[in-house]
Amino acid sequence: MEIEVKSQSDDEMIFIVRDAEVPFVNAIRRCAMVNVPKIAIEDVNIIRNDSAMFNEVLAHRLGLTPLVSDLDALEGLSLPEDDDWEEYSNGIMFTLNEVGPKVVYSKDLKSSDSKIKPVYDTIPLVKLKDGEELNIEAVAKVGYGKEHAKWMPTTVCAYKQYPEITFNEDVEIDYDCAQACPRGILKSDRRSKKIKILDIEDCAMCKSCVRASENGYINVGYRENDFIFRIETDGAMPPKEVLLKACDVLGEKADKFIRFSEEGGSK
Ligand code: SF4
Fold first, then answer.
1. CATH assignment of 2-34+155-230, given 1.10.3720.10, 3.40.30.10, 3.30.1360.10, 3.40.50.300?
2. pTM across the whole model
3. Per-residue pLDDT for 265 more than 80?
């Protein structure tokens, strides 16, 4: 198996996996979505809420506010499988105490741990009218995406098989197929009597070009064992950390399975 990183930023990573199987790539995808620990607000204690927003909606908004959850931030925190995870005080405390008129933003959440804070300062939480007060304390905990979407580190975690475009040289060149591509991947070059493929990795395999070609000049397929994988996060964790952790989790699961098999399935 070969892996090639095509692009990487703070919240997005695109890489090519060659010579792999669908179940393996899909297992990585699932682990990245639901088995990688992330921090999110779990308990909310609303002391005063004069705003027009219901307490439940406000608590839901707080839960979905992305908090910094990189490896540094996660260090030393209880995981859901630990006995002390349930304890209210065993988390990162946030307070929010504001008086209107104003829009309360994520940056107004005050954290008890300087490492763990909202990823973005400008997420609007609630609007307060003149004299309205908001007084909240909240506790953030580590959790997994399999329990709730707020603990899902990925906003996009998907792969597609590597596209393959071929031309039928036995029929007349059909320039219409290039015009039909919604992504501008195909370019007609009438001088050299060819259709050029500009960026095959951007092909959505929608087959609009195939449908537009009446004489079957173009065909779109895919490579069975090559994949284009894309991970996008909400900024709480770098995508590379998500991927590495997902691989660790998958490795641990495989080890467990091997041990179970070696022990004759007795445990
Ligand atoms: S399959 Fe769709 S995206 Fe790909 S080349 Fe054809 S029209 Fe363009």
1. 3.30.1360.10
2. 0.87
3. no
Omega within 30 of 0 (cis) for the link into 182: no
Identify the CATH assignment for 38-151 out of 2.40.160.60, 1.10.630.10, 3.20.20.80, 2.170.120.12.
2.170.120.12
Tell me the average pLDDT across 99-123: 95
Q: Whose CA is nearest to atom 2 of ligand 1?
A: 206
Tens digit of each residue's pLDDT (9 = 90 or more) over 34-67: 999 999 999 999 999 999 999 999 999 999 999 9
Residue closest to 42 by CA, chosen among 153, 109, 142: 142
Cα(33) to ligand 1 centroid in Å equals: 28
For 48-57, 78-87, 232-241, which range has the lowest pLDDT when averaged over its residues? 78-87
Name the closest-CA residue to atom 8, ligand 1: 181
Quick one: which H or E segment has residue 262? helix 239-262
SS3 (DSSP) at 37 = coil
